[in-house]
Amino acid sequence: MRTKHEQILAYIETLLIGDKISVRRIAKELQVSEGTAYRAIKEAENQSLVSTIERVGTIRIERKVKENFERLTFAEVVNIIDGQVVGGKSGLHKTLTKFVIGAMQLDDMMRYIDPGNLLIVGNRSKAQLTSLRSGAAVLITGGFDASDEVKLEADSRDLPVISTSYDTFTVATMINRAIYDQLIKKEVLFIEDIYVPLQQTDILQANQSIGDYHAKNAETNHGGFPVVDTKGRLIGIVTSRDVMGKEMSELIEKVMTKQPISATLKTSVASASHRMIWEGIDLMPVVDEGNYLLGIISRQDVLKGLQLIQRQPQHGETLDDMVKSQLIVHQNEYVEFTVTPQMTNQFGAISYGAFVTVLTEAGEMALKSKKKVESIVENVTIYFLKPIQMDSILHVKPTIIDSSRRFVKMEIDVHIETSQVGKAMVTFQLLDR
């Protein structure tokens, strides 16, 4: 049976897009405490099922699929710009396709406005009305209010009119930054993108026997199976190593690994990969918040996912992306890197985070070149020997000092011309192909 928290989340998913949600309403309709209702609504907000807006309340919004993650709802725009909704509140759940800055004559402006757009404009009532009648919402900058006519038009068309005290340039920058951040998040691969939902034939229960394991193994050719209780909650996992040499009549609960390592749908694939390699496991169950089994991932699934995301076009640029784009390999001997202003701290020297990224990326590139393997960083010890100023050209030389089947220890020296400015000792875990 589902917990009250899970029941509330399931109930919220059944509500119509645009419905208002309150703690008191949820508590009354589902007969739970207001504290439980509040926590469940916050979780729904984390899952992008609802959005909370000051002076408006909490509304049900459409969960965005990953392919359109860069789009924002008007409700999110209100929160980003600290805005106030002055009309069309019932349309806050809608998604905007693009925003248009109204800094031109009205006739010219309207050529760029389509349904689903957001027009950013000052105190120009005629432009606001024309935009609404074209199916586009309106964002009024400079702290101005909308006229009664504009508010009525917005209410009749379910298109938000938002007012903000910021100027047009600042507002456009804030919205663009939010979309940029969403694009970066879009590139992060989660377990929900790669996991395999399980059928009943792929699951064992604790009261079944090792004979049942072998029967399922012969039927599915799977080497391991999650073990659940009568309610479908994960309680263990059993693999071929667990049943080796055991009697066919012995119960699964006697040989299974109890409290196995698991992942949720929102666990990143990179995190799952690190955990599987560190713990030496090939199979990881996927569960929800109540520990109910949803599916399973294998090490092969994880590695395929990581390889797939590396081939995707990059939309948002992270620190790692900026560093990678500037690393130049010289005849597999050393890596050259120029310290740009974005990589510095408040003193004009290279930041700690940028320096760590430069060293680890150079080490991973060396491993790919020399050992033809993928890797992840296990441990880093860094020594700053001299300040590294902006526009400095670094020569980074990785040297393997010890290696085994699963680990590589590397010494990385950093020079500016003939002067050594830094040094690192890095341990990498090698990923199986």
Automatic annotation (TrEMBL):
Database matches in Pfam families: 4HBT (PF03061), CBS (PF00571), DRTGG (PF07085)
Swiss-Prot/TrEMBL keywords: CBS domain
SUPFAM superfamilies with a match to the protein in the record: CBS-domain pair, HprK N-terminal domain-like, Thioesterase/thiol ester dehydrase-isomerase, Winged helix' DNA-binding domain
CDD domains: CBS_pair_DRTGG_assoc, hot_dog
Listed Gene3D superfamilies: CBS-domain, Hotdog Thioesterase, HprK N-terminal domain-like, Winged helix-like DNA-binding domain superfamily/Winged helix DNA-binding domain
Domain CBS: 195-254, 256-318
Protein name: CBS domain-containing protein
Taxonomic source organism: Paenisporosarcina cavernae
